Amino acid sequence: MGKKETIDIHHFQESDESLQTTLEKALTLHKSGHFRKAGKLYADILSVSPNYPAALHLFGILQYDMGRAEAAIPLIQAAIIGNPEQPLYYLDLGNAYLETGDYNHGVRVYRQGLSKFPSNTQLLYNLSITYVNHEKWEEAEDVLNHAIRIDPEWGDAWALLGKVFLVNKKVDQAISCYQRAIEIDGKREDFHFCLGNAWLEKKEFHLASMCYRRAINLKKNFYDAINNLGVATQKSGDVKGAIACYKKAISISPQSSDAYVNLANVLLNQGYEKEVIRLYERAIEVQPDSLPILINLGKLYLRDQNYEKSINCLSRADAISPNDPQTLYLIGRVLLSAGEIRQAIDIFKKVLAIDPGMVSTYISLGNAYRIMESMEEAILNYQKALKHDKRSEAALTNLAIAYRELGDIQSSHSCLDSILEMKDDLGARVKKTMLLPIIYPSNPSIDHTRQKFEKELYELASTGKTLADANEQIGLSNFIVALHGREDERQLRHKIYDFYRRICPDLIWTAPNLKRTCVSGKIRIGFLSNFFRDHTIGRLYRGIIENIDKTKFEVVVFRFDRHSDETAQAIHASADKVVILKKNLKADREYIAGCELDVLFFPEIGMHPLTYYLSFSRMAPVQCKKGFPVTSGVPTIDYFISHAASEPANAQDYYTEELIQLESTGYYYYRPKKPGTIPNRNEYGLPESAKLYACLQSPFKIHPEHDAAIAEILRRDNDGILLLMEGKYHQWKTLLIERFRRTLGPLTDRVYFIPSLDRDQFVALFLMADAVIDSIYFSGGNTSLECFAMGVPVVTWPSPMLPGRLTYGFYKQMNIMTCVASDMNQYVELAIRMANDLSWKDSICREIESKSSILFENISNVKELEETLEKMVAKCW
């Protein structure tokens, strides 16, 4: 019953010797655990002598020992009334009150006892312990100082006073107290342990280790000392020694969680993530309601992309401590990573209702809106984050990227300048260089941008400074450069590669062993992209992955997200293996290399930053790309697979890779179905009588040089109107209109924009248009295939490089050249004739319908690609 003195029955003798004998018998039964029999005897005594203090006290202790502290209180109170000169009664009554949770009465009783017995060390100690347990530090210090004045050789009092000082960060005073306790009794292992903790707090790791070792010498299997010795050893830099300590601690006390957690944290820094998770799982088995362990395990599962288990841990933590904003925030992050964007948004809003000043939540909420392409909402939340912390680099960086997405380069660069005013940050400087305009006001502005871009790349690379992780510290693609329509693309792409090679040298990596033992005899090919879903890349590659010969090829698909739709599900179902990568450059390249591929196939390099950064590594003997129609500029990409019909005569000049030109497109493209109905123009706010010229590409593909042709078409066809896509954000439309006001003048009023549509509505627009015209320098690929599937012709002008020749290549494949212009003047002529000569257009439509089957669901395309891949592998080996 707390800390109490040895009971001597002779202190409480009554005149009746039979009562005394009975009491002694009851006490013997009590001590031996026969509570029921002892209780009967105590009751018998009190029935004869109801005010017998010793019997009242002992019966009260029995009630306490049986877990009935409330029943003990009146009995011990009665004992005090009968004999107020027994300090033990006050001690046990105070203990009983504390057991019921009545802190105030417990303290009051201890103090009442001390008023009568001011030098009673047991009352002093229990009172000080009570103050410590309830964090009444000043009161505890006063009582302990009083106790030490009474008994300067009281080691426990010195040690407890040391604890009071240590908790309150008075480390030097704590050390003095513990040292005094050790002077009094140097054989107390707990005193040495406590002194070690004080030295650990002071970051004197060697001295802390010495104390822990002394404690262990005094008590061989002292779990806490061995565990803390591991902490001190780890902090002094001896990782091996720390691991040994933690393992020993676990072997001594496998039901204690601390050592599991400490060992896990050491191994996490060593890269042993699976073992770390196993240790945390063991820790939570031992201590299932530990908030810190649940939260940390939830974080580890999030990092491992095990979202279901992460949510489970964090939900358990939320049940233990409901509505804790940090826990809810982590749940939101898991949902965001798992692609459950709307649920994540709801959670983040809930967090902000609880804690409106939580900066990280505004940023994550902004990121969620950015993924949903609700860029204005994203910007609003980044701005709110900055209201609470104007120096938040994460908020400024994300705000910069969001502004750039809207085409507001000035605001984007201003955000990065704010970071650079706080510190000279290489990552921010590189981002500022990489964040190029999306829509250009003029053709000369493109040249100016490229010249400035090259100059800044050179200047940044010349600083000699480096970054550790390009994806984490930069994380931007150079997609927009490909739309500039300049023939020095190869040179610029190589300069971009050389820039990254110099400032991020860790990008250059070769797998230690590129050869594998071929068990199945199949070629193991990995397809790597972020866009294996309802996206241009997904639609182009679904048929390849589904139809590639599985008796010859073992297919591994690498993705960065879990986005699921019909296209993604079809790709997953047809691959031998699907891997969701961690979006961690080093971990992902090591994993890919560990798959021992023969061929690593990039469906795009340049559309997603991590795909680009991974391409710097040699992860397979053969690495090739196809798709995004510009050279990578990266030496570790061996081959660029293209379509001979689309390429110019001097095609190799435009590639750093070896160019492989297929006779076919190399795609197995599923023919889109015609929509059931063609909408009325009025539904889109378009005049019925006008000649509708449709260029249904993203606004950033409308090159400034295209404006002259558009103006000429509208000038020459008074009934003509131009239909463009508004794009993701209305700001893109605004930027285009501003440019058109300068280049088209009043004709701008005859330009109509249409918002984003679903697939069927989008395809229906081709059938509604009088003439579909291609974008220049970066022509339609997927869009042109959709037109040809509907039997709709596209007027195109093939520019010098592949990006502007895709539609032209499809026409050559079909052997239809009627709609291919030799220059921009003919492009205008063909467009106007298409819109106004219905019989001519109908004849072309019929020809496309009769010949377009070569472009769709053509298994010979896949066979040619297979043969090409086989030759690459044979050449490599």
TrEMBL record:
GO biological process, one term: protein O-linked glycosylation
Leader peptide range in chain numbering: none
InterPro entries given in the database record: OGT (IPR037919), OGT/SEC/SPY_C (IPR029489), TPR-like_helical_dom_sf (IPR011990), TPR_rpt (IPR019734)
Domain O-GlcNAc transferase C-terminal: 518-665, 678-856
Keywords, ordered alphabetically: Glycosyltransferase, Repeat, TPR repeat, Transferase
The organism's place on the tree of life at top rank: Bacteria
PROSITE patterns, alphabetized: TPR, TPR_REGION
Pathway it works in: Protein modification; protein glycosylation
Keyword Glycosyltransferase: yes
Protein's recorded name: protein O-GlcNAc transferase
SUPFAM superfamilies with a match to the protein in the record: TPR-like, UDP-Glycosyltransferase/glycogen phosphorylase
TPR repeat residue numbers: 87-120, 121-154, 155-188, 223-256, 257-290, 291-324, 325-358, 359-392
Family to which the UniProt record says this protein belongs: Belongs to the glycosyltransferase 41 family. O-GlcNAc transferase subfamily.
Enzyme class: transferase
UniProt EC number: 2.4.1.255
Pfam families: Glyco_transf_41, TPR_11, TPR_16, TPR_19, TPR_8
A GO term for molecular function: protein O-acetylglucosaminyltransferase activity
